[in-house]
């Protein structure tokens, strides 16, 4: 993985505007991406972005609040070839090595089966389902799902189940 730097803003805008992102609520346009880079959204005090072999990008964010999150995007032509899975394995290790975080979190749309498969593979556990929270571009509200992996599970290779007893 190669760290994105703000001088690569044009390249990032090219990347984000050349694939479809069916599970994201908004289509990124060039000027928005350039403005976001200038504002520190992609690389700043609480966010870092990495290129995945120039065939994908992953933005790590909320790096300062104890439970970091990420937004992973693989170019449309490169999906289903193992890149997303490799990226989640890498970023989870990177976050636990470089931050004192006890958990890494991930949210996605409930029908994003590829993303959910990738998360389950890396010991992220389903903790929540958020009903009608995730708008698509037509305004239809889909359910979202929340996952997290615990540091202890990452270190030991185990999976701590959610305790649903109250
Ligand atoms: C979701 C995404 C990151 C997954 O990365 P990927 O490189 O396509 O996925 P991989 O090739 O690593 O596949 C990982 C697993 O998902 C499974 N998978 C892939 N596509 C799938 C699909 N459409 N339905 C069900 N499972 C799927 C694979 O079979 C694989 O499991 P396996 O190794 O047990 O066979 C990628 O498809 C993507 O960028 N999609 C668009 C952006 C997006 O939705 N990002 C998530 C935002 S929350």
TrEMBL record:
Top-level taxonomic group: Bacteria
InterPro entries: Acyl_CoA_acyltransferase (IPR016181), GNAT_dom (IPR000182)
Keyword Ribonucleoprotein: no
Stored Pfam families: Acetyltransf_3
Gene Ontology MF annotations: acyltransferase activity, transferring groups other than amino-acyl groups
Keywords: Transferase
Domain N-acetyltransferase: 1-166
TM region positions: none
Keyword Transferase: yes
Protein name, per record: GNAT family N-acetyltransferase
């Amino acid at each position: 993985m190669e760290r994105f730097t703000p001088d690569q803003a044009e390249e990032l805008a090219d990347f984000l505007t050349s694939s479809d992102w069916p599970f994201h609520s908004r289509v990124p346009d060039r000027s928005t991406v350039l403005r976001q880079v200038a504002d520190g959204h992609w690389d700043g005090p609480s966010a870092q972005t990495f290129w995945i072999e120039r065939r994908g990008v992953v933005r790590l964010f909320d790096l300062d609040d104890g439970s970091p999150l990420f937004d992973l995007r693989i170019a449309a032509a490169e999906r289903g070839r193992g890149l997303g899975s490799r990226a989640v394995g890498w970023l989870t290790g990177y976050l636990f090595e470089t931050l004192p975080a006890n958990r890494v979190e991930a949210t996605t749309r409930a029908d994003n089966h590829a993303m959910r498969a990738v998360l389950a593979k890396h010991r992220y556990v389903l903790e929540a389902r958020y009903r009608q929270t995730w708008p698509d571009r037509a305004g239809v509200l889909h359910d979202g799902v929340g996952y997290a992996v615990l540091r202890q599970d990452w270190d030991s290779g185990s999976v701590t189940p959610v305790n649903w007893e109250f």
